[in-house]
Amino acid sequence: MSHYYQHAAAKIREGALVMQGLDNQRNLAAFLARQQRIKARHSQAQNTGNTIAATTITNADTSEIEGVNHV
Number of C-alpha atoms within 13 angstroms, CB side, residue 27? Predict the structure, then answer.
């Protein structure tokens, strides 16, 4: 009967190791997905900041522009 208990205990350990491996894979996938979302938000924020920082050009009075002849 001892052999059956040893065999059952070995199967339980094997199952626990398989589950631990699956948990590790799932946790890694979730971590990488979070990192991608953070990277995408950071990139989007950087692009928005670049758009807002665009310089504005004021309209110049045409009489101040050289080479313009008024009739």
Answer: 6
What pTM did the predictor assign? Answer: 0.52
What's the rounded Cα separation, in Å, for the pair 71 and 63?
12
Token readout for 18 is 């398989």
Q: What is the rounded distance in angstroms from the CA atom of residue 15 to the CA atom of residue 63?
A: 86
Q: What's the distance, CA 47 to chain centroid?
A: 15
pLDDT tens, residue by residue, 5-55: 999 999 999 999 999 999 999 999 999 999 999 999 988 877 776 665 554
**In this structure, which amino acid lies at residue 16?**
A
Say if residue 19 is exposed, middle or buried (CB neighbours under 10 Å; 0-12, 13-18, 19+). exposed
